[in-house]
Amino acid sequence: MSGIHGSHDSCPLVKNILLLDSEGNRVAVEYYSDDWSTNAAKLSFEKYESSKTSKTNARTEDIKDPEHTELSLEELHVVTEESVEVDNDESYVRITFTPTVPHCHMPKIIGLCSYAILLQSLPPRFKVDVRVTPGSHADEAAGTKHP
Fold first, then answer.
1. Does residue 110 fall inside a structural domain?
2. CATH of the domain at 93
3. Which of 95, 100, 105, 125 has a CA positioned 20 to 30 A from the CA of residue 140?
4. Does residue 70 share a domain with residue 48?
């Protein structure tokens, strides 16, 4: 996800939501700002963002939290190795993530993006379940996505 900026450290502003495939092509995008006034500017921005992640394998230790910019998602324990369950025999994957604060406004986006990426990345036989850690958010249902 990109385009998170804010005039105040405690109040980030989402300027766009990008869901791109592994080649940087649009799966779903939404722009909430006029910072990219033409389709060509939007496509250029999307290719730039895609090139940044394709060089890194999108490791959680490299992804910074927009509300705690000095810390990575790994350091904040948003997703841990223990919070990922894979059952190859039952064709099932569950990710349980913990928002950084109980009033975080991003669990719906985190849940939807995680769900979409897993569906796109895994063989079609897999069922995907993305959940907010029980008791970690004021609206646990917001980030929960499953069939």
1. yes
2. 3.30.300.130
3. 125
4. no
By the 10 Å C-beta count (0-12 exposed, 13-18 middle, 19+ buried), 55 is classed as: exposed
Tokens found for residue 140: 């646990």
* 1-10, 30-39, 50-59, 103-112: range with lowest mean pLDDT: 1-10
Whether residues 27 and 80 share a domain: the answer is no
Domain assignment present for 61:
no
Clarify whether residues 74 and 49 are in a common domain.
no
- Cα separation values, 137 from 16, 104, 118, 119, Å: 24, 7, 22, 24
pLDDT in tens, 52-96: 665 544 455 555 666 677 777 678 888 887 888 888 889 888 988
**Residue span of the structural domain in which 100 resides:** 66-147
Q: Is the distance from CB of 93 to CB of 123 less than 8 angstroms?
A: no
pTM of the complete model: 0.52
Q: What percent of the chain has pLDDT over 70?
A: 73
